[in-house]
Specification:
10 strands; six-stranded mixed sheet; transport; 293 residues; single chain; binds adenosine-5'-triphosphate; four-stranded antiparallel sheet; 9 helices
Length: 293
């Protein structure tokens, strides 16, 4: 694996709540070789920390997520993906570190950031006594869009996401997949620059997954950025062109799909190697399972 793909999060824990006091500006930087300046990342994370009691959920991570990419944040259960996305989107206050989205500091400049992002969080809570259409109408008005524009966009999104037939049904009566889709519609309504999705395909049938996929591909083709978390390597490999691998609160690798995959036959193999689970078969201890009764 090329060196630039592997990340080297510092091993030391910072003092107190734990934020290393590193700061960088968000301007486009020269590449150091006299070439064209590199575009600033869509999302920059510096020394981000979160601790829950004794548990360090996110251990001082650095990330630079490039704009206009389909980005996968992958990691085993409990790696810290949801905690990271929650801090990056302003839903959870970090113990330390800094996050900028489109050059704006998430915690110092939340209004600027929230106008530019869409979020489909884990355990999505929606105003579920509204119908799907009412939810989009309400969300659009909260976003400050004119009523006619909200109506137009809502109609199109409901149609594309195959929710037109259920638009007057209360969201509480939606299935899991329908809730994901109406949540996605609400997150896209204001045409954000960066869309954050926590496990967007969980509980979604293959037809709906394909629909969501084409909506997201169209969205990134227009220059927007999607950041999504998943455990499903095949999905990440087929959708993403840029990947960050998180293990036990640290970033183990980040880079293009090819850089992170390197010589491994698949992202799944590269992932197993990175998390130290290659060739590991914990099921061997279950020697009673399926044996003679
Ligand atoms: N509110 C909380 N209180 C205490 N511990 C928490 C809390 N939220 C997360 N954690 C712990 O932080 C660690 C990271 O959790 P997180 O949900 O971010 O992982 P994840 O990578 O999203 O996992 P999964 O893929 O299973 O959803 C875990 O050890 C988890 O138990």
């Amino acid at each position: 694996m090329p060196e630039q793909a592997r990340d080297h999060t510092p091993d030391r824990a910072p003092e107190g709540t734990g934020a290393p006091a590193r700061m960088r500006d968000d301007e486009a930087r020269d590449d150091g070789a006299g070439g064209a300046p590199t575009a600033p990342p869509a999302v920059r994370v510096e020394g981000l920390w979160k601790r829950f009691g004794e548990q360090i959920a996110v251990a001082g991570i650095d990330l630079a997520l490039p704009a206009g990419r389909f980005i996968g944040l992958v990691g085993p259960n409990g790696a810290g993906k949801t905690t990271t996305l929650s801090m990056v989107t302003g839903l959870l206050r970090p113990d330390g570190g800094r996050v900028t989205v489109a050059g704006h500091d998430v915690w110092r400049d939340p209004v600027e950031v929230k106008a530019r992002i869409g979020v489909l969080p884990e355990g999505l809570r929606l105003f579920d006594r509204l119908s799907g259409r009412e939810l989009l109408g309400y969300t659009g008005r909260l976003r400050g869009l004119p009523g006619a524009e909200v109506d137009k966009r809502a109609t199109q999104l409901l149609d594309v996401l195959d929710l037109a037939g259920a638009q007057h049904k209360l969201v509480i009566d939606y299935s899991t997949g329908m809730r994901k889709k109406i949540g996605l519609a609400a997150a896209l309504l204001h045409n954000p620059e960066v869309l954050f999705l926590d496990e967007p395909f969980e509980g979604v049938d293959p037809v709906s997954a394909q629909t969501i996929r084409s909506v997201l591909e169209r969205y990134t083709d227009s220059g927007a950025t999607v950041v999504f978390s998943s455990h499903v390597m095949e999905l990440v490999e087929s959708l993403c062109d840029w990947v960050a691998v998180m293990v036990a609160g640290r970033i183990r690798a980040q880079g293009t799909l090819a850089e992170v995959r390197s010589d491994a036959p698949s992202l799944q193999d590269a992932f197993l190697e990175l998390v130290g689970a290659r060739g590991l078969d914990r099921s061997e201890s279950l020697d009673w399972l399926g044996g003679a009764r």
